[in-house]
Amino acid sequence: MLAQTRLIRKLDSLLQTDLTGFIRLREPIDITSFTGWLKGQTLYPRIYWHARERDREFAALGVLREIRDAGQLATLSGQPKPAAGSWPRYYGGLAFDPLATQDEAAHWQEFGDCRFVLPRLELIRQGNQIELVCNLWLESDPHQRQQEIDTSREALAQVQPEAALTSLPAIHFQRRDTPPQAIWSTLVEQVTSSEHLAELPKVVLARESQLTTTQAVNPWDLLAAMQPLTPACFHFAFAFSAEACLLASSPERLYRRHERDLESEALAGTILRTGDEAVDQELASQLLADNKNRLENRLVHADILTRLEGLAEQATLSPPRILKLRRLQHLRRDITAQLKPEVTDAQLLATLHPTPAVGGTPRRKALAFIRQHEPFARGWYAGACGLISEDVAEFAVAIRCALLTPNTLRLYAGAGIVSGSEPAAEWQELDDKLANLLGLLSQGSRP
């Protein structure tokens, strides 16, 4: 018997109970690929989340409830444990800068400044166990109960079999960078002048690379092809409709909270990785010793620790270490903290996001500079994407990402500009950060 059929039978039995509030029904299911399962579905939104540690994987489908105002995120904290035995889990994200004018960019409009979804259906893997989950919110009114159960039954009836993932063909595209290199280099020269550095020691300058093509690119095939190339990363996707899908393979955690325990990190400072172990070790040593990259990382971790002072009882910083990716190596310092009892995820997001790793420092001046000089809308690029429940929350920074819309892919990359930054080297760093995605698109892949 199919998992969704067993869940429909459980729905019918709910009419014989007086349970109210959030309800979660679960059934084991056999799935080979979560991305293949999402590819086969017809309902929206379709959301995917795979933790960097690889032990947790989620797919979400449909909408039970939704939050479009960041101020409402505080309502998700301090709730009693539901009769379901576990708290509702909301998936979503925040834009990089809610004061920017991304509402003028049609390709970001359905994402908004804030959008979090409590899905109607979830596919959940914890370790080796996979479950299909149906979420409901029942009131005591008999009419509402029947309506809610009927809506869930309809959603389960629409669940489609897992679809086969297919190889990506080589994509032929026209590329346009915004801003172009000459303008971007002028900005780097401006922010590295001694007068400017005195006011703004770090600002992250980003670029949008727009790829126009007549070939269709399936987002779930592309995400599946990205994953083995970026094993040390968070992988996530948000498709609120068929018109746009944000994909990311981000190496950077904003934070993970389990009860009162918090993990964050300062990920800033970049050098190449060649694949030759001896050469890469030498490059890593150079990165650890390089004053420019150490300054870039120090500005990030000092800002995070300062922002945590009012939220945490204590916070500790690890020694610097190297995060090795397929083509790049990053300087990373881990931050752990014990949160004060009353601190909520809404407070953490408002306090920590955006970090100097994607914005700059001081935050207010850096964001004002980006608003004034960056000639494109970042939208959710460099935003905070993840999931929230009462007991656990986890967010990654939306970097190394692509926004897919019909006939257009927008790729985003940024570089932290500090004293010692050189325009040509920083422009090359942007290309290095897009190398995995551009390589997949231009050369194709195997499923």
Q: Gap between N and C termini, in Å?
A: 29 Å
CATH homolog superfamily of the largest domain: Anthranilate synthase
The fold-level CATH name of the largest domain is Anthranilate synthase
Bulk shape: globular
| Computed structural class | alpha+beta
Strand segment tally: 22
Distinct helical segment count: 11
Number of domains: 2
Helix content estimate: 25-40%
Q: Characterize the biggest β-sheet.
A: 12 strands, antiparallel
- Report strand %: 25-35%
Radius of gyration equals 22 Å
- Unreliable spans: none
Question: On the 0-100 scale, what is the average pLDDT?
Answer: 94
The CATH class of the largest domain, by name, is: Alpha Beta
- Which CATH architecture of the largest domain is right? 4-Layer Sandwich
Describe the structure.
With 447 residues, this protein is of the alpha+beta class. It folds into 2 domains: 3-157, no CATH class; 174-234 and 252-443, Anthranilate synthase (4-Layer Sandwich). Helix content is 29%, strand content 33%. It is built from 11 helices and 22 strands. The protein has helices at residues 3-14, 34-40, 142-157, 181-191, 194-199, 219-226, 277-289, 291-308, 345-352, 363-373, 423-443; strands at 21-28, 46-50, 56-61, 65-67, 90-94, 114-118, 121-126, 129-138, 174-178, 202-212, 234-241, 244-250, 253-258, 261-272, 312-317, 321-324, 328-339, 360-361, 384-388, 392-397, 401-405, 408-417. Helix 1 runs antiparallel to helix 3 and helix 2 (34-40) packs antiparallel against helix 6 (219-226). The protein is globular, with a radius of gyration of 22 Å. The two termini are 29 Å apart. The mean pLDDT is 94.
